[in-house]
Amino acid sequence: MRHARFASFAVGVVAALVVGIAVTEVASRWIFFSLFVGIPAVAAGVLATAVTTRS
For the DUF8147 domain, which residue ranges apply (predicted)? Predict the structure, then answer.
């Protein structure tokens, strides 16, 4: 059980990093720095963790 939760947490962290990097690259033309760029990354991480924890 512990390994499944760790794996689900790892999936969430990776999803947050990937989405955060993608959003930053796309939005960097218009936004120099903003905390709102990280919101999609946090949402993706939470969603990925929730989906993988359900099983």
Answer: 4-53
